[in-house]
């Protein structure tokens, strides 16, 4: 065998091995998540009982950063005010909106200026004014100069009165008992500093007055693919990591944090597009470095419903942005990798994320490109090409199928058989183009990060499904 | 053309694909099976609910039927779910009626069987049922469960024991309520709220002999139950070198006898102590504490200033005129800001 042949064979083995390792690792995470999921399900009878509060539940500050959301903000705040919890405050941070967001808030909630003793624990853009509702005493509004979502959250942290805060996206729908469920890790273990909830797709669901009435599936393929993708990547994968304290991401749409831990880590970084992931990785790094005992958990049952892109362009921009955010998060927390006291996050989760999330799109795309090129140029026989595709796509389908199985074993969010049948078809179809396309977009995100630096947010075309 | 592949590549890739496809088909079949089982169980559940809901509704209305159908074993779980939910939502004679119905249907025996031989979900349900039924026969089984390492089943076993015989349960379990870190304090307090008076002497006795880490938890429970500690015990805690213990002790202060000791802590080096001193003085202090609180209003720590301002504004002997006078006199902008904040808060609430 000459050198070129050896290189081709080695490269082919490398890509095959990578696909097996990638999908095998996620399958293992799914396997790890089975036991805690089943145990959680066994406690449904307790969870469904009427809640009785003792008064010792930690009060929560809900932070809602908002920018130009005049159409939705009132409904969002109304739905937050109806959340069931013993003690909470709602802080809306108006991030320099140039539409009527603040006016809507003032009108709808009878806001009056409030002479707050604002405490700057994290640097932010200047706060212009603070308001308090005369009809809802636990509702406050901060009006500030535009600084972005992370900056707004930091301002909310500065103004919050309570030891825990929950960052919620303005376009998200929370289940009424979502807070009482997401708080549970904090009640059971005083070392918990953050807990993330599940984010599911609101497209196709029936929503009324800010609450989900009926679960449905989206109508477009773009959104349907994301339903399966969210199950695979964002639900069971994180459950697996949570059992070994290796969760590196808590969704910005629904996460709860211990305020003093976040302040210790320096608050949200404002110069990154993936501020939610970056914060969680930094929390790991900070606490590990200072040897402070902690846990970061993922709780599968408090659900937040959010609208996902239904057109190719918006989805593309979102995935490019997410990958850039991931890259920024890794780059700024490189010190966690194989650090002395890194534990599971430093020695397992971070390297895993680097290899499969950060570099993964690049390697996957190169794998497909290489095999196609090798086949076209005759370097490999057609049998090898077909079998490679069979293995690569087969593993992808298996992983998606395992996620759907776990969904069936645990939550039954989609009650109708027809919905599961549709999702099963999507489980297969997703791997014939959609996964490869999102890989390509993520690779673009990686290249843009490497060449351009800070990414813009871009605009999403909302259909208003959640309002 | 390069035929560069040895057989192993083709073999491994092929069998990887076959394995993936096979497992996918197995998962698909499993999902179908689960759905069919779910559909069947929902049908049975619907039938059970249609059969038993009218009887349960009549029972809670005080009109339990004279003749009752037999509660079949396969209806047990659904029935228990309904029955437990009703119990949790009702009070008074309705719950006694539900219990009478439960005994007529021999739910106690079924629940004891589930406790001994059921899976985890069934055992949890059985614990709830036995607790509501106040089934004495299950006492020893429940005591065993209460010592289990599983935090959920052990805690709900403890709940059942308290419902059955609160005196005996508190005697045996108070040390566990303090010792078991896996039982959330908020849930322990919720459980003990209805038996607070009975719990008080047991908790105080236990606190006389436990270690400092456990003492913190015991104080949290005392705080939740609004239990007043003996002044001598409380005084000792306030003089302890551990800041965490002092803070926990300050949180439960309710006795004016301790005022001098509390005032003495107003200059403590740890700001968390000063915060709770300010809070405590607001709760039980008097006119002579206004100077202490005014001093704390100029503390370097935001939270100390905040609590001092809240306490001042909340004091009945310190009215708007006094606050205005203080604001005029003050040359500390942070103190002024905080007092204004506390005043505005008080006006809104």
SSE topology sketch:
The complex is a heterodimer of chains A (467) and B (349).
Chain A: H1 3-42, H2 44-47, E1 60-66, H3 73-81, E2 88-95, H4 101-109, E3 111-113, E4 127-133, E5 139-144, H5 149-159, E6 164-168, E7 173-174, H6 178-182, H7 184-188, E8 192-201, E9 206-208, E10 211-214, H8 221-243, E11 254-258, H9 259-265, H10 275-289, E12 295-306, H11 312-332, H12 343-358, H13 360-376, H14 382-410, H15 417-452
Parallel strand pairs in A: 1-2, 1-6, 2-5, 8-12
Antiparallel strand pairs in A: 3-4, 4-5, 6-11, 7-12, 8-11, 9-10
Helix pairs in contact in A: 1-8, 1-13, 1-14, 8-14, 8-15, 9-10, 10-11, 10-12, 11-12, 11-15, 13-14, 13-15, 14-15
Chain B: H1 7-60, H2 76-89, H3 93-104, H4 107-117, H5 120-133, H6 139-146, H7 151-164, H8 166-179, H9 185-192, H10 196-207, H11 212-224, H12 231-238, H13 243-251, H14 259-264, H15 271-284, H16 290-296, H17 302-314, H18 320-329, H19 333-348
How many E-type strands of chain B? 0
- Shape call of chain B: extended
Largest sheet of chain B: none
Discrete helix count of chain A: 15
Shape of chain A: globular
Give the terminus-to-terminus CA distance of chain A.
64 Å
Q: Average pLDDT across residues of chain A?
A: 90
- Return the string of H and E elements of chain B: HHHHHHHHHHHHHHHHHHH
Which percent range describes the beta-strand content of chain B? under 5%
Distance between the termini of chain B: 83 Å
Uncertain segments of chain B of ≥5 residues (pLDDT<50)? none
- What quaternary form is this? heterodimer
Structural summary, described in words:
The complex is a heterodimer of chains A (467) and B (349). Helices cover 53% and strands 15% of the residues of chain A. Chain A has 15 helices and twelve strands. The C terminus of chain A is likely disordered. With 349 residues, chain B is an all-alpha fold. Chain B is 74% helix and 0% strand. Chain B contains 19 helices and no strands. In chain B, helix 4 packs antiparallel against helix 5, helix 5 packs parallel to helix 7 and helix 17 packs across helix 19. The radius of gyration of chain B is 30 Å and the shape is extended. The model of chain B has no long low-confidence stretch (mean pLDDT 92).
């Amino acid at each position: 065998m000459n050198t070129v042949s050896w290189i081709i064979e080695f490269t082919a083995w490398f890509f095959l091995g990578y696909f097996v390792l990638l999908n095998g690792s996620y399958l293992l995470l799914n396997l790890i998540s089975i036991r805690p999921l089943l145990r959680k399900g066994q406690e449904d009878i307790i969870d469904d009982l009427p809640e009785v509060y003792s008064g010792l539940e930690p009060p929560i500050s809900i932070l809602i950063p908002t920018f130009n959301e005049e159409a939705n903000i009132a409904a969002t705040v109304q739905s937050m005010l109806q959340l069931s919890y013993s003690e909470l405050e709602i802080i809306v941070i108006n991030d320099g909106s140039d539409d009527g967001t603040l006016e809507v808030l003032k009108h709808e909630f009878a806001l009056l200026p409030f002479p707050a003793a604002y405490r700057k624990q994290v640097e932010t853009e200047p706060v212009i004014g603070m308001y308090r509702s005369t009809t809802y005493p636990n509702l406050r509004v901060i009006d500030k100069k535009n600084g972005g979502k992370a900056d707004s959250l930091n301002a909310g942290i500065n103004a919050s009165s309570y030891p825990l805060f929950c960052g919620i996206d303005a376009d998200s729908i929370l289940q009424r008992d979502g807070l009482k469920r997401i708080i549970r890790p904090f009640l059971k273990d005083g070392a918990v500093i953050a807990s993330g909830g599940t984010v599911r797709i609101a497209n196709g669901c029936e929503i009324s007055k800010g609450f989900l009435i009926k679960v449905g599936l989206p109508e477009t393929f773009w959104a349907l693919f994301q339903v399966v993708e969210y199950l695979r990547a964002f639900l069971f994968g994180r459950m697996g990591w949570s059992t070994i304290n290796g969760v590196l991401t808590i969704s910005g749409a629904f996460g709860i944090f211990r305020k003093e831990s976040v302040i210790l880590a320096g608050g949200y970084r404002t110069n990154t597009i993936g501020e939610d992931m970056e914060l969680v990785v930094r929390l790991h790094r900070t606490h590990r470095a200072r040897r402070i005992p902690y846990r970061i958990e993922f709780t599968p049952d408090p659900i937040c419903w959010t609208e996902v892109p239904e057109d190719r362009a918006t989805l593309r921009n979102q995935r490019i942005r997410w990958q850039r955010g991931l890259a920024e998060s890794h780059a700024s927390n490189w010190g966690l990798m194989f650090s002395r006291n890194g534990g599971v996050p430093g020695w397992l989760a971070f390297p895993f994320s680097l290899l499969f999330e950060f570099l993964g799109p690049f390697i996957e795309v190169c794998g497909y490109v290489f095999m196609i090129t090798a086949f076209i140029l005759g370097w490999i026989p057609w049998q090898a090409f077909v079998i490679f595709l069979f293995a690569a796509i087969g593993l992808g389908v298996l992983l998606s199928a395992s996620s759907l199985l776990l969904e069936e074993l645990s939550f039954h969010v989609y009650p109708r058989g027809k919905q599961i049948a549709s999702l099963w078809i999507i489980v297969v179809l997703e791997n014939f183009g959609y996964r490869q396309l999102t890989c390509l977009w993520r690779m673009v995100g990686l290249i843009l990060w490497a060449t351009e630096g800070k990414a813009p947010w871009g605009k999403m075309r909302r259909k208003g499904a959640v309002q | 053309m390069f035929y560069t592949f040895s057989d192993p590549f083709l073999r491994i890739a092929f069998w990887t694909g076959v394995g993936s496809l096979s497992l996918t088909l197995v998962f698909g079949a499993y999902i179908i099976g689960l759905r069919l089982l779910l559909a069947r169980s929902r049908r049975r559940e619907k039938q059970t609910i249609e059969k038993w809901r009218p009887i349960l509704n009549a029972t809670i209305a005080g009109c339990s039927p004279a003749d009752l159908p037999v509660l079949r074993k396969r209806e047990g779980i659904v029935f228990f779910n309904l029955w437990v939910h009703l119990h949790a939502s009702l009070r008074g004679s309705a719950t006694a009626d539900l219990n009478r119905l439960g005994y007529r249907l021999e739910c106690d025996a079924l629940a004891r069987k589930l406790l001994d031989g059921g899976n985890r979900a069934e055992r949890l349900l059985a614990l709830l049922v036995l607790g509501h039924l106040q089934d004495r026969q299950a006492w020893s089984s429940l005591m065993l469960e209460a010592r289990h390492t599983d935090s959920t089943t052990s805690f709900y076993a403890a709940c059942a024991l308290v419902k059955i015989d609160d005196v005996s349960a508190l005697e045996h379990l108070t040390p566990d309520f303090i010792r078991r870190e896996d039982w959330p304090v908020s849930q322990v307090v919720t459980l003990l709220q209805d038996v607070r008076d009975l719990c008080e002497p047991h908790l105080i006795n236990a606190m006389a002999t436990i270690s400092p880490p456990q003492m913190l938890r015991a104080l949290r429970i005392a705080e939740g139950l609004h239990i007043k500690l003996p002044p001598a015990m409380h005084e000792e805690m306030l003089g302890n070198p551990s800041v965490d213990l002092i803070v926990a002790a300050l949180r439960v202060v309710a006795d004016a006898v301790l005022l001098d000791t509390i005032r003495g802590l107003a200059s403590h080096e740890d700001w968390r102590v000063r915060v709770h001193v300010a809070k405590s003085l607001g709760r039980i202090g008097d006119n002579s504490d206004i100077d202490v609180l005014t001093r704390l209003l100029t503390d370097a720590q935001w939270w100390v200033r905040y609590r001092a301002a809240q306490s001042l504004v909340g004091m009945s002997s310190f009215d708007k005129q006094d606050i205005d006078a203080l604001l005029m006199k003050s040359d500390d902008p942070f103190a002024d800001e905080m007092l204004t904040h506390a005043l505005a808060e008080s006006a809104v609430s």
